[in-house]
Write a structure and sequence with these properties.
Length: 724
């Protein structure tokens, strides 16, 4: 049946091949095995149940928490020629009855509804007379109390499971820690270990954290890089949303607010304007976005600190769903902790404890000086051997030489102690610099011995130093009040038992926003043609009363503006163009492309979309994994590369694996000689990679009952991948 699934993938949805674990997941569902799917936002979760829905003879029920999400999915499926219905309160009585009739006469392939709607006696009675082949539960993390968005009604879905006992069940989410995943499987009564974790890394998202100094200025500076792009700005409070949206509007930005304090009609109107590209920016609380499938969001700004990593990950996941490079900026200040603590203190005692654990993990992410993807992925239980991603501020920061900053540490830590371990870094730095700020004078901290002893460093230098002291475990946040406290390790520094080494930026060095580097596109597509196609898409969408990305995604238009397809066959080779859409739009879009090419003497381009300057950083320098790969191909042994680069064998293997992923090849024969496993064990591991795929090591590790080390798995995965 997987061959039938592949045909549907191309003819209905316009994609040439499955990505990640989609093929394995669909095979599992078609084999009637209950399945838990963990896949990043924009990673193709919906296809995992939509394609089986077109193969099963009966109805597929999709449980979804928000009306906006149902509407969005329905519009996209109808555009692709799939008969899809929804049942929710947004429908008129005539629309509702028409959808009921489609269910009764078996003409609908998918039904979207909320959990509380599904469990209504009249709906259960209606569905009892229908053939239900699949029950898909979207946003399944809502089932778990350990999830960031627990909803009690989701816990009741086990009743629906019992009523549709012959239907296969698939639970899907983008945000689930190992504990949440177990909770989901237990709640739904999943018996088998049919869990597919496709990884949490959204490689096309550039991630950056900036200290919040002048947030409005920082925001407008950031927005200047996205003059034609859509984005979302998240704030913690409704008042902040209103104030920021008004201030941005006065600066001439195309912007609307969104929060629960607005009327339902105003929220709906603002959301609709954003989805249809009539307004460019939405400033919102966390109430916005869960039901939005807008694929061309190019940036996310967190104006305030999110309460937990799940929420942060889910919100940045709304950018770049079409796979095009997008940017995520988080502005952080210690005062945010006070606001979050206020919200946490409103919770029940057991919920409060969980929320505090989540907040601490969020702060660890903010303060890391390593690749930001390491704590992000580790939080969700995904281990990575990569030391740099090339797509976060820390990885792109210049590797300044480490120097002894012990004296600066002593001054800072002493000031933390003398101010009573009650204040954040901003106040400590003010005292060290001899500031006459009102807060410093009110607390009489101008009389302390540490007042004015840090003037050899600038404010920016002290900010950078303070973050390093936190990262090195010399200070920690007081989770009750948000101030800094000393750790036992700090006293070792005071006693000269431990030196502190770190980086120090130059006093005159102004931080160049690394998100500016994101603006350089990976592909040499024709921007003038892209804009012509984008305007036509908007015109068609307005006429059909649907969002523009439902017609074609930005990624699809980019490929059109790169390949210049001029026949139906070459148009069908473009990602996202299926048979139904080709029939609808080929005359319009091919007409525009042919006219543009004729006018500018451009020929149709064949082949696949390839990155320019492959293997190089945005600045043009070769990436480390490319250098390592070239050294290996030049005949240097793994041992020699280890010595030359002063890195571990696992790091060498990680670089070589990434080199292969970029499309290069290596000589794999010498690799097996490095393995310490017997031949039969090697063969078992390679068979496991064949059946489970090489993307993640944990499934193979589990399949080998933990008897094979990760070092061996890294080595054999590299051998397996290189032989493919």
């Amino acid at each position: 049946m997987i061959n039938q699934a592949r045909k549907i993938l191309k003819s209905v949805f316009g994609y040439d091949d499955f990505i990640s674990l989609q093929a394995q997941i669909i095979e599992n569902i078609l084999a009637q095995r209950d399945t838990l799917v963990i896949m990043p936002t924009g990673g193709g979760k919906s296809l995992c149940y939509q394609i089986p829905a077109l193969i099963f003879p009966g109805l597929t029920i999709v449980v979804s928490p928000l009306i906006a999400l149902m509407k969005d999915q329905q519009e996209q499926l109808i555009q692709a020629g799939v008969n899809t219905v929804v049942l929710n309160s947004a429908l008129s009585s005539s629309e509702y009855n028409a959808n009921i009739q489609k269910i009764k006469n078996n003409s609908a392939r998918l039904l979207y509804l909320a959990p509380e709607t599904l469990l209504k006696p009249n709906i259960m009675a209606l569905l009892a007379s229908a053939r239900i082949d699949c029950l898909a539960i979207d946003e399944a993390h809502c089932i778990s109390a350990w999830g960031h968005d627990f909803r009690p009604e989701y816990r009741q879905l086990v009743k629906a499971r019992a009523s549709f006992s012959k239907a296969v069940c698939i639970a899907l989410t983008a945000t689930a820690t190992p504990r949440v995943r177990e909770d989901i499987k237990t709640s739904l009564g999943f018996k088998g270990a049919n869990e597919f974790v496709a990884g949490f890394d959204r490689k096309n998202l550039f991630i950056e954290v900036e200290p919040k100094e002048n947030p409005f200025e920082q925001t407008t500076r950031f927005l200047a890089n996205f003059s034609d792009d859509a984005g979302i700005i998240y704030c913690l409070t409704r008042r902040q949303v209103d104030d920021l949206a008004l201030a941005l509007k006065e600066e001439g930005f195309s912007v609307c607010p969104y929060h629960a304090g607005l009327s339902e009609s105003e929220r709906s109107r603002n959301q609709d304007m954003f989805i249809k590209d009539d307004v460019r920016i939405i400033v919102a609380t966390v109430a916005f976005g869960m039901g939005i499938d807008k694929s061309n969001v190019r940036f996310i700004i967190h104006y305030d600190l999110p309460m937990n990593i799940e929420r942060y990950y889910q919100e940045i996941g709304r950018a770049g769903r079409d796979g095009v490079k997008s940017a995520c900026l988080l502005l952080f200040s210690y005062s945010d902790i006070h606001t979050l603590k206020y919200f946490i203190n409103q919770k029940k005692p057991e919920e409060k404890k969980i929320a505090e654990i989540h907040l601490k993990a969020m702060l660890n992410f903010v303060h890391t000086d390593k690749c930001r993807r390491i704590p992000l992925l580790n939080y969700f239980g995904e281990k990575t051997t990569r030391t740099e991603c090339g797509m976060c501020d820390n990885c792109l920061a210049e590797a300044e030489n480490q120097q002894d900053i012990s004296l600066a540490a002593k001054k800072f830590l002493s000031c933390v102690k003398r101010t009573g371990e009650r204040f954040g870094a901003v106040h400590i730095i003010d005292v060290l610099l001899g500031s006459k700020a009102k807060k410093v004078l009110n607390f009489r901290h101008n009389r302390l011995s540490t007042y004015g002893i840090g003037t050899e460093y600038s404010k920016k230098q002290w900010q950078q130093l303070s973050r390093q002291f936190l990262n090195k475990g010399l200070t920690e946040h007081d989770m009750e009040f948000g101030g800094l406290k000393l750790t036992p390790k700090a006293w070792e520094v005071f006693k000269d038992k431990e030196k502190v080494f770190g980086r120090l930026i130059k006093a005159s060095e102004a931080k160049e926003p690394t998100y500016k580097l994101r603006k350089k596109t990976t592909y040499d597509f024709d921007r003038h043609l892209f804009e012509i196609l984008r305007q036509k898409r908007k015109e068609i969408a307005d006429n059909d009363s649907v969002p523009p990305y439902v017609i074609f995604s930005d990624k699809t238009l980019i490929e059109m503006a790169y390949f210049f397809p001029q026949t139906r066959d070459t148009l069908l080779n473009i990602n996202g163009v299926g048979i139904v859409k080709a029939e609808k739009y080929e005359k319009i879009f091919l007409g525009l492309i042919i006219e543009y090419c004729k006018k500018n003497q451009i020929k149709e381009r064949a082949g696949h979309l390839k990155p320019k300057a492959a293997g190089r950083t945005e600045s043009g320098a070769k990436k480390r994994h490319i250098i390592v790969g070239e050294a290996y191909n030049a005949g240097k042994s793994i041992d020699l590369i280890k010595k030359n680069f002063n890195i571990k064998q696992s790091t060498v293997l990680s670089h070589l694996y990434k080199y292969l992923q970029d499309g290069y090849s290596i000589n794999t024969k010498p690799l097996l000689s490095l393995s310490k496993l017997p031949d039969d064990e090697q063969a078992r591991v390679l068979d496991s990679f064949q059946s489970l795929g090489p993307e993640l090591l944990r499934p193979v590790y589990d399949a080998m009952d933990g008897a094979v080390s990760y070092d061996e798995l890294h080595l054999l995965r590299l051998y397996y991948t290189g032989m493919k």
